[in-house]
TrEMBL record:
Enzyme Commission numbers on file: 7.1.1.1
Location of the Alanine dehydrogenase/pyridine nucleotide transhydrogenase NAD(H)-binding domain: 148-312
The name this protein goes by in its record: NAD(P) transhydrogenase subunit alpha
GO aspect biological process, one term: NADPH regeneration
Catalysed reactions listed for this entry: NAD(+) + NADPH + H(+)(in) = NADH + NADP(+) + H(+)(out)
Residue ranges crossing the lipid bilayer per the database entry: 170-193
Organism in which the protein naturally occurs: Methylococcus geothermalis
Portion of the parent chain present: 1 to 377 of 512
Length: 377
């Protein structure tokens, strides 16, 4: 089978779904690989680098789409891109089926099969395919780099001949994959790091990374369906708001990552809290795309409000495109290995395999999302 990688067309998207090194490994599974010319430019993978890896470089996107049995992409395709897809072909990409019903219908009409990287079950066996975690890890790191860039002081404390510099204080709200990466990056730069989360089980993870876990003074179980967060009671929210208000006055940087699957992001940082922060403080709102954790966030933009820089970038993984392309490409390779156990250049979409079943959102033109709930053994 032929695997094609088109250039991403979403404005500002710099990632690419494979790299020359990973393409060589895909070829070892028996596939032919082609890329659209310039597909890797934004991630510093040149056409020549792909050619050296034995990958054919094709000028025209339409040819890549129509000529490939399997298309690998990063962003969900546009409706115009779906028009280019071969009837009965296969697409592997981020899809976000719940948010994109029109796209799902159009993809189903191609009679093809679609595997969504956002729908890979987050179970131990599927960790190597978990692109959500790969991208969240990069986003958390980059959030801290963006904060450091916009913050007017060092993150680390220093004693210099020109005076003593205190370390910056960084507060991370939501210690999931992105939050833990942010804790690691901020600690690495020498900041004092604190973090909070509604899920009590993350406390030990936060502490093991050398950060302080800030508790909410209210007893409530914060873990919901599938181990994810849930909407908390009014009483908890009030106690949490008091705690965040105290932190906002004290810290220099807040990185917020708080998300509840399928719900708008909880609003945790009010206008009043922003006003209470020290001049020159920075907020990075990693929940910007889902409505933001801060009342003043503008998705996709950096704004200064009441002397505080509020970063609402929604493309943090793309801002580290070479790294994110490399990890994403490896997640796709691991999926292809699952789909092609015989290493004969053909895929078998085994709907009895829990991981493949979860990721497959359309099978031969039939919408198969959402998957049935996991069996309780
Ligand atoms: P996420 O991006 O959905 O949420 C980010 C964090 O925000 C979470 O830690 C959440 O608890 C927290 N949060 C939500 N509302 C909050 C609030 N009001 N105040 C403070 N914090 C709040 O989460 P994620 O990083 O994608 O992953 C979290 C879950 O997924 C965990 O259960 C984790 O163990 C699981 N997971 C499993 C695997 C695997 O087994 N393969 C991989 C990754 C993640």
């Amino acid at each position: 089978m032929r695997i094609g990688i088109p250039k991403e067309i979403f404005p500002g998207e710099c990632r690419v779904a494979t790299t020359p090194e990973v393409a060589e490994k895909i070829k070892k599974l028996g596939f032919e690989v082609v890329v659209e010319s310039g597909a890797g430019d934004g991630a510093s993978f040149s056409d020549d680098a792909f050619r050296e890896a034995g990958v054919a470089v094709i000028e025209n996107a339409a040819e890549v789409w129509a000529g490939s049995d399997i298309v690998l992409k990063v962003r969900a395709p546009s409706l115009a891109e779906v028009d280019l897809m071969r009837q009965g072909g296969c697409l592997v990409s981020f899809i976000w089926p719940a948010q994109n019903p029109e796209l799902m219908d159009k993809l189903a009409a191609t009679g093809g099969t679609v595997l969504a990287m956002d729908s890979v079950p987050r179970i131990s066996r599927a960790q190597k395919l978990d692109a959500l975690s790969s991208m969240a890890n990069i986003a958390g790191y980059r959030a801290v780099i963006e904060a450091a860039y916009h913050f007017g002081r060092f993150f680390c404390g220093q004693v210099t001949a020109a005076g003593k510099v205190p370390p910056a204080k960084v507060f991370v709200i939501g210690a999931g994959v992105a939050g833990l990466a942010a804790i690691g990056a901020a600690g690495g730069l020498g900041a004092i790091v604190r973090a909070t989360d509604t899920r009590p089980e993350v406390k030990d993870q936060v502490k093991s990374m050398g950060a302080e876990f800030v508790e909410v003074e209210y007893q409530e179980e914060g873990t919901g369906v599938g181990g994810y967060a849930k909407i908390m009671s009014e009483g908890y929210q009030k106690a949490q708001a008091d705690m965040i208000a105290r932190q906002a006055m004290d810290v220099d940087v807040i990185v917020t990552t708080a998300l509840i699957p399928g719900k708008p992001a909880p609003k945790l940082i009010t206008v009043g809290m922003v006003k209470s922060m020290k001049p020159g403080s920075v907020i990075v709102d990693m929940a910007a795309e889902q409505g933001g954790n801060c009342e003043l966030t503008v998705p996709g933009e950096v704004v200064v409000r009441h002397g505080v820089t509020i970063i609402g970038y929604t493309d943090l993984p793309s801002r580290l495109a070479r790294q994110s392309s490399t990890l994403y490409a490896t997640n796709l390779l691991r999926l292809l290995e699952e789909l092609c156990p015989q290493k004969d250049g053909n895929i078998v979409v085994d709907m009895d395999d829990e991981v493949i079943r979860g990721a497959t959102v359309i099978k031969d033109g039939i919408i198969t999302w959402p998957p049935p709930p996991p069996k309780i053994s």
